[in-house]
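Hi everyone,

Forwarding the result from last night's run.
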Amino acid sequence: MTKDLMAVMAVALVLILAALALWGWRARKARQEAIFESPTEALEFFGEELARATGFYVATSFANDHLERINAYGLGIRGVAEILVFTEGVLVVRRGERPLAIDKSQISEVTSSQYVIDRAVEAEGIISIVWTQNTTPLATHLRVVDEASRQSIIDALQKISNGKEVK
């Protein structure tokens, strides 16, 4: 009898913890959605394609807090992505998620680093695009494994961000 009671209590505890985690995730999402509007899914004008690479969408975070993942508008879900840089902006087409378009006028900085949130890779393996949605500074983090493709993406990003150097 006590083994059955312990099992029921353990299952109940796990269900309560899962419900609390889900509630926290949804509450964070709602708070973030109140801060800024949904990012666009396509560029108004694409212009010429400067670079293209297959890589990974790691996350979008607040620009001043790279450890707080943005859950709003599906931006918190990592996955495989096609990264396209055009003369008018960046388009990140994520598998199974809505695309993310960043107009070049929104980009304030492009950096590269070894780690972000819960991902650590080789030196300078993560590309971070700092941009503004409404008045909220965000940072979108991308991973391109192939070094030549990564460099072409960085070069193209530097070109469209008014020559701002990658740090």
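Residues 1-35 form one domain.

Cheers,
N.
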